[in-house]
Amino acid sequence: MSSSSSTKVCFNSSCKDALEWARKGWRRRTGEFADLCDRCASAYEEGKFCEAFHLNASGWRCCESCGKQIHCGCIVSFHMFVLLDAGGIECITCARKSFILTPNPAWPPPSLFLPVPPERTKDLSTKNWCPIAGSDPVPWRQAPSLLSSSSAQPDLQPRMPFEVGIPSGIDRLTSTERLSASSFEKNKLEDSYERLVNGSQKLGAADILENGNAGISCGEQVNPSVNMPHKSPFSNNDTSTSRFSVAVSPNKASDQTKVSNSHAPRPTPSTVGKQFCGHNGADPFGDSQICNGRPQVDARARNQLLPRYWPRISAQELQKISGDSNSVITPLFEKMLSASDAGRIGRLVLPKKCAEAYFPPISQPEGLPLKVQDSKGKEWIFQFRFWPNNNSRMYVLEGVTPCIQSMQLQAGDIVTFSWMEPEGKLVMGFRKSSTAPPSDQGSEPVNASNGVSTNGDISARKIKTGEVLSKTHPLKGKLITSGYLPIDLANSADQASPWSKDVKSECVSKEVLGAKSSFRGTKKNSTLGSKNKRLRIEKEDVIQLKLTWEQAQGLLRPPPNHVPSVVVIDGFEFEEYEDAPIIGRPTIFATDHLGVKIQWVQCKDCFKWRKVPPDAFLHARWTCPSNSWDPERSSCSAAQELTAEQLEELLPISNRAASKKMKSSKQDPDSVDLEGLDALADLAIQEEGEGLDASSQATTKHPRHRPGCSCIVCIQPPSGKGPKHKQTCTCNVCLMVRRRFRTLSLRKEKKLSEKEAETALQKLQQHPNFPVIMSEDNIRIITGEGNSSPNQKMVSTEVPNDDPGRMRSSTLSPFKGQIDLNIQPERDEELSPGSYSDGVMRMLQDAAERDHTQQRFSSSNNQNCTDQTQVGGNGVGVNFGNSMIAFHRDPESEHPEPLSANAPSASTSAAKR
DNA sequence: ATAGGGCATGGAA
DNA sequence: TTTCCATGCCCTA
């Protein structure tokens, strides 16, 4: 999204000034921001836009509390007021004082206005809920009891500001749907629904004109929060109130879906909730209502529907779901399939809040059958039930295996649940997490990053690997503020969320200003990463990267030929790029003896530094042969232009000491801190290439495996669901298995030359169950017999049989003929506490040796996971294919610290011999 | 012996 | 600290 077109004019129809430099105004229905001239943008940002331009327009009303005049008929001021239950409006300031934090909502889902069955028992049993019966309106989707005063709940709690939001909407829905509604309410609701669907009724400030003019109605409101992305003090709440539903009809589908979907589809009706929410924030429906047939204990707990469950369904998906019908699709929630979800157990764990909010209430663990239609129109019946769990419940959908298999889903993919009206059907869509081409089975994969719609707004922008907000820090120049570090680029599912930008930038800004580099902000918001830690660097590991934002920025380059749009947030300028950043090779900018700006870059292979133009974009794997600027030095064999001394001068001061230390070593003068960036880049590239591999997303941690565990269990799809692995397969699992075996073999080779190994072997051969336990560590023998699993077979076939010792090498386990999935072959030497540094260096030497030996190996073994050892500067990186360890040698101490982990070894305890 | 149901556990939020 | 939830594992059929 580039808002810096020179041909544009100010979006304000009263202005129309030519724009030299556009500033962002309110969010348009297309999703783009209104481009404003300086003057109008300032007015908008100061909240004086309507005063300046709409004074004569209709729609001005007074705040019921303070009397302030608010322009209620305009998109520009839409977020400046709230509609009061008793009529009238209140300015947002007063509303906040009254604990009303939700701004004006978008359209509520029509399902909220469904007719209500005459009687609702507190505990809705399966009898009352008959999804299988067909198209009857679903009782549990009944409307809120508008006038119900069922607030006499035992545990009614005042709603605190942070409790207001989507979840409250859910709560209200949940609560009220458990209540009876009078016929009056019913009629009213039906009427409301009717009018809503027919578009004849505009809610509150629905008379909003996209271009900011007042008084002209349009059918859709924009998310108010996006109107003030830079200054909302409670943007979370704001955004959380976005609700929408989509009326999909053949003749207007494109428009409506487009518009509707320009907001993050968040189906729960805070609108309605808001409308009927008391000023004091108390829930008029009672927080303690029965939910799913049981009393709610903690209202606050229900008020959090995690962002990762917010549905992000594209218009296309919705349209596919609805087909040609006039159905109204209301996305309810989505969930990324975990390994167990996608496994053959056939149980899909439902997020509790979602289950309680959107699924029929159940009071018995057996639950009830639930008819769900998939995106192909095929209907499935799942058992919706729960298990008691820690005084709570754990909701599951049972019997999902056929459906999941039918949709060819695996762990990491996302299933979406929507509600379709008037059919009254639960619809299950899906989104593949991989970059696989769009499936014909329904919801197409929007983009690799679990993307959203493609129709215009932030959420709609196609974001391949992440959108970067780079921030120009007044002191330090550009900093990355979005938190979209490469590590998360491929994984962050919420990077496309319409508000993530704001949230993140705010979050990161704080971190930056707090002089603390942390990726937490990003991770917290990462939908995918929130649970699928296999793809993430652990918090601690990230910290160990010892990267500052500035350093990380060094890895990212703006997309070529891309003019950023600039956003000012909290006084800081952010450059915003629509396209993914380029993950670049760390370089050193300098000026040559002629005063010409140049860039020094280090070859990935030979580590020699090459001079390139200052504006050159260099991929993280840049090597000498890519040096088109200097043919004489376009080969790794060519000498380095820079002397070590010169390089030292170029390096950051803080690194020189370390550099000096390393200078005397045999290693090439490496890039010191750049090593860390390098490592990060490596990882990013690996993630780039592999991170989206469904198989690698397949599982999450499991209790028996520590964080960082890269065992097959942790990284492979469950229950053999994944594709068959060929011998040449380069998926994570295969690579890891090969790598594991290779290192095992190499180590064995080494050990065989030692008497100790001989002794061990003798012992081994004397063992009655040879091959069996050789030691207590977790190294295993691969015998070839009893290997029944595909992986093990694969290993067997991968085993080079040129060395029989290798076949028996390595380690043993209590499990005969099995590979220890947790084996950490690189750590076969115990590192005594006092010799950490030695141990690491020894390991690195081993790695170097392996690297050497590897080359022999590689020639006969098709693989992409060539181990790399980089030693130099004060940083030492060992790259084990997709697992990388980088050590940062602290100049102050002799103890190298892990720069990054996510490696199968080195960061965990050493195996004992 | 195997598969599935259901609970327990423990990491993460 | 509490709650959620992924998944391990026991028990039963």
UniProtKB/TrEMBL annotation:
GO terms for cellular component: nucleus. It comes from the Eukaryota. The keyword Ribonucleoprotein does not apply. Residues 333-434 form the TF-B3 domain. CDD domains: B3_DNA. SMART domains: B3. SUPFAM superfamilies: DNA-binding pseudobarrel domain. One of its GO terms (molecular function) is zinc ion binding. It holds the Pfam family zf_VAL1_N. Keywords: DNA-binding, Metal-binding, Nucleus, Transcription, Transcription regulation, Zinc, Zinc-finger. Residues 887-897 have a biased composition (Basic and acidic residues). Gene3D superfamilies: 3.30.40.100, DNA-binding pseudobarrel domain. Residues 900-913 have a biased composition (Low complexity). It is found in: Nucleus. Residues 594-644 form the CW-type domain. Residues 233-244, 251-273, 432-457, 785-799, 855-870 have a biased composition (Polar residues). InterPro entries: B3_DNA-bd, DNA-bd_pseudobarrel_sf, Zfn_VAL1-3_N, Znf_CW. GO terms for biological process: regulation of DNA-templated transcription. Residues 220-275, 430-457, 784-815, 849-913 are annotated as: Disordered. The keyword Iron-sulfur does not apply. This is B3 domain-containing protein. It comes from Actinidia chinensis var. chinensis.
